[in-house]
């Protein structure tokens, strides 16, 4: 059976578990696998950019934010901002204003130091969270690209939860498909021409 939607994934998981009482827990197993994906996968499809007007000390994180890659102020010149700890930012700038040089993350906001003395365009490159599968959002790019990763990810969670005798096998298959997915993404990122040394 082709696995391309949330429903076909649920059917495939329940069929492999071969337990009459398993169907009700399958959505939880899928959510468990997605939690692992968000912690451990950083694929090119997750890379996003957004721009915002920065006028104050704080700026809300993008709603789909998972992890920062880069932040810069777009102007002449472009200024790359440095990530520091909240403690360092507060101690270093102590309420001073100027052109931001550093930033940190506090809860669901970025904090900048020094506090902007004017208006700036800030560009954020970040990893977005993997969209969760639901009955109303029945597919996503990860399921389309790697259906077996979803299948064995959920079965790995299920096997540990139910102490199924096949748990070790499912865990091994999950690890195998995680590695395969990572290699596939790496090939796609670096599939252009080989780097060549330029002779002066």
Number of strands: 10
- Poorly predicted regions are none
Please state the structural category: alpha+beta
Biggest pleated sheet: 4 strands, antiparallel
What does this structure look like?
The protein is 40% helix and 24% strand. The chain has helices at 6-17, 26-40, 86-93, 141-145, 147-162, 167-189, and strands at residues 47-54, 58-60, 65-74, 79-80, 82-83, 97-98, 102-106, 109-113, 115-116, 120-128. It folds into two domains: 6-41 and 130-186, no CATH class; 46-128, no CATH class. The strands form three sheets. The protein has a four-stranded antiparallel sheet with strand order 1-10-3-4, with no helix packed on it. A four-stranded mixed sheet has the order 2-8-7-5. Strands 6-9 form a two-stranded parallel sheet. Strand 7 (102-106) and strand 8 form a beta hairpin. With 200 residues, the protein is of the alpha+beta class. The chain has six helices and ten strands. Helix 5 runs antiparallel to helix 6.
Topology readout:
Blueprint: H1 6-17, H2 26-40, E1 47-54, E2 58-60, E3 65-74, E4 79-80, E5 82-83, H3 86-93, E6 97-98, E7 102-106, E8 109-113, E9 115-116, E10 120-128, H4 141-145, H5 147-162, H6 167-189
Helix pairs in contact: 1-5, 2-5, 5-6
